[in-house]
Structures are given as structure tokens and as C-alpha cells.
Amino acid sequence: KKRKEEEKEEREKRRKRKGRRRSVMNSCAEKPLENDQKEQVTPRRLAGGQFMVQLDAEGSYQCSATGLIFEVTGAAGITYSLLSWSKYARLVQKPWIVGGPLFDVRCSAPAALLSIHFPHCLCLGG
Q1: Where are the alpha helices (DSSP H) in the chain?
Q2: Contact 30, 50 (CB under 8 A)
Q3: I need a labelling partner for 102 at 20 to 30 A (CA). Which of 39, 50, 78, 80 fits?
Q4: Domain range annotation of the chain
């Protein structure tokens, strides 16, 4: 019980330090905050199946093509693509198994990228 109280106090301290920045998820065990607004963004499609979004200000943005949610503290350009697990299968050793899509994500301002929320599944059909 004491540990839970300490964890709660620590989360509260972090939240206060962030000021206006508010995480979509307070912890992995919690549900997304219902009142957190995500701005829908349509990515630019680049060669090689890459996507790119230019986020101009602090906020939470959801990609209309992939469902990825980017939470940023300031302007950032983010380029991302879906990779094939077949290329990386040797890196996944038992007891682990592949559990979802694999993304390559690059950011022009890494310090501004607070979090990325990945979808549990990805619809690749039309």
C-alpha cells in the first residue's frame, strides 16, 4: 500500500513538472484519458511506403492512415514506415512472439517527441 502511495505521489510530481504537457496515458495499466483531444492528421506519402507528418505545435496527433498517435511538446517532423517482421524474425527469440506491426519511426526533433501510441492492430486493406 505504501509503495502505491509513493508511485501516485511520484506521478503527481511528474505531472506538475510537465505543466501543460499532459500524457495520454498516465501508466501502461490505465486506460486513455477520455477528454484528451487528438487532432487527426493526414500524412504525406513518400517513396518506399513511408509516411511523413509535420506537427507545428504541442499536442496529441493521430495519423489517419496508420492510427499512430504522436504526443509532442513542440514542432516536429516525423517520418515513419511499416517494416516486415520477416527481416527481423531472428531477433525475436522464445518465449517471445511477434505481437503486432513493426514501425521505423524517425523524428527531426527527438526531444519534442513525448510519446508514440501504437495500434494493437493495423488494417492494411482498402
Answers
A1: 2-18, 85-88
A2: no
A3: 39
A4: 1-36, 37-126
Classify the phi-psi angles of 124: left when phi > 0, otherwise alpha if psi is within -120 to 50, otherwise beta. Answer: alpha
Distance of alpha carbon 108 from alpha carbon 121, whole angstroms: 26
Closest CA to 117 of 48, 36, 57, 54: 36
Per-residue DSSP letter, 34:
T
| Predicted pLDDT of residue 94 | 86
Is it the case that residue 7 has pLDDT exceeding 90?
no
Rounded Cα–Cα distance for residues 119 and 126 (Å): 17
pLDDT > 60? residue 28: no
Q: What percent of the chain has pLDDT over 90?
A: 42
| CA-closest candidate to residue 30, choices 15, 49, 16, 19 | 15
Q: Name the pLDDT band for 11 (thresholds 50, 70, 90).
A: low
Instruction: State how far the Cα of 102 lies from the Cα of 70, in Å rounded to an integer.
Output: 16
